[in-house]
Design goal:
The protein has a domain at 78-213: Protein Transport Mog1p, Chain A (3-Layer(aba) Sandwich), CATH 3.40.1000. It has six helices and eight strands; from the N terminus they run αβααβαββαββββα. It has helices at 5-34, 85-88, 91-97, 112-119, 145-158, 205-213, and strands at residues 78-79, 101-103, 123-129, 135-143, 160-161, 171-176, 181-186, 189-194.
Length: 215
């Protein structure tokens, strides 16, 4: 019987090839088994803050500018006069003006100027004509600048400037024909002479000049 050399040689070689393949496969499997399990390491991801903090802003605070305060004008006031009625017009003065006049024993201030003078620490005096009953009122006050300005404004509003009662600016004279009142501002005094029978500035001139001479 004749043996075939080709068949006996091929079989063992195929087995080796198969074993080699099998071994290689096992080696690959073993290597695969040694690899770490697939798990991706977590990586830190920057997280954007949804609540962004606003930068502080400077708030402008309005500062009120200091305002100049107007100094109030002094209140109208009067100083107590340093004269009495018999010094304003002495008995001799009255007799020289008109012998028929004498002190009015029942006198009370009635004219606006007389009432105002007594309101501001002044005096008011009255002389009566024994024949006609005419009363002449003479009032005297020492007003401060505020009161003097008010009185001058009123005198000008109700009458006219009279230059014959004295020399300006030392003497400022006014006459109101509606009330028969002459007024003079001189040397810090306010003098008023009033009578219904005086209808023009000259009617009060003698009395006014005599009073001014006694101040």
């Amino acid at each position: 019987m004749t043996l075939s050399s080709s068949s006996s040689f091929t079989t063992p070689r195929r087995l080796r090839s198969a074993l080699a393949l099998t071994g290689a496969a096992l080696a690959l499997f073993a290597l695969a088994g040694c690899a770490p399990e697939g798990g991706t390491e977590p990586t830190a991801s920057p997280t954007a803050s949804s609540g962004a903090t606003a930068e502080p802003t400077a708030t402008a605070t309005a500062t009120a500018e200091p305002t100049a305060t107007a100094t109030p004008a002094p209140a109208p006031e009067g100083t107590a006069v340093d004269k009495s009625c018999d010094q304003v017009l002495t008995a001799d003065d009255v007799y020289a003006l008109n012998p028929n006049f004498s002190v009015d024993p029942g006198y009370a201030a009635t004219s606006d100027t007389a009432v105002t003078a007594t309101t501001y620490s002044g005096i008011s005096c009255g002389w009566i004509n024994q024949s006609s009953g005419e009363v002449i009122e003479v009032s005297l006050a020492m007003p401060n600048d505020s009161l003097a300005n008010n009185l001058k404004d009123a005198a000008l509003a109700n009458g006219d400037i009279v230059p014959t009662y004295g020399t300006a600016p030392e003497v400022e004279g006014y006459f109101s024909p509606g009330t028969g009142t002459a007024q003079v501002f001189a040397n810090g005094y306010w003098v008023a002479v009033s009578s219904p029978d005086m209808i023009e500035p000259g009617d009060a001139e003698r009395v006014m000049s005599t009073v001014l001479a006694n101040l």
